[in-house]
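cron nightly-structures :: item 1 of 1
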Amino acid sequence: MVNRVSTIWMTLALLGLATAAWPAPLTAEVTSAQRAPLVGKTLATRAEGDETLTEVARRSGLGYLAVARANPGVDPWKPGSGRQIILPTAVILPYPLLPGITINLAEFRLYFVSRDQERILVRIYPIAIGSEEHQTPEGNFSVVNKIVAPNWTVPADIRRARPSLPRVVPTGPDNPLGDFWIGLSRDGYGIHGTNEPFGVGRRTTHGCIRLYPEDIRDLFPLVKRGTPVRILYQPIKLGLRQGQLLAEVHDDFLGRLGGSLTEFVLQQRLLNWQGRLDMDRAQALCEDPRGIPIILSPFPPPPPRLEEPKRTARRRD
């Protein structure tokens, strides 16, 4: 198994490993004809001085866990100056790609999708999500309000746990909502900034979605009241690139898949991909989920079989 996994990760070279940090947010332009396309390229940077992986993630515009899982074996506290750090900046887009906001809790990402005639424009942001005790609700919601410089009305359960907090925290550096609030149709939940950016990319919130201050500032003016918001949990994503089937596998931290490979088959059918599905490679990815798109089946599906038209013999009398 170790050799097989090592072989899989050699395909990183096929995804464009580079040596520069990727700016945030990641943006892409695709067409409606593309099904679950791959966007971006897997890049790399080097740790500087005594910085931690959290700091590398922050300056790269990525979430902490995404960077940590892409670099197994790297000490998150002391990567070492000059150590190469892989940056997970290649992404398989959700399928179907719906206008509005899609949040995939399993990958700690928010997708904002807008249409311009046949073009589909996508902006991708790393997020923090609800903790194990305060999980982010899943389902279909909508944006109901937007507030600049929001006050934070402290929920009762938080005040019980931290009685020193006031009932209302005014806008400012001590406000965990940051500078912008996008309220959802699920009462008490929203998308907002943060005064603790190193928590982005982790399960740290009381159920809301947090973005880096720079990212919420970018997203806020794009979102309108009524914008649909879809929150889902999808650790396994399949996509297509130049006739090849790709897989992007994330940690199943809610334990819903139970080690089953059924999700691979279901998504293969959804994409109508007719090639061979390498189940050994799929199993290896589930055992070592790094959140980086990898070629799952190296051979494209066979071309459609052409049948000769049937000829009817003519009888000569």
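cron nightly-structures :: done
Residues 262 and 268 are 10 Å apart (CA to CA).
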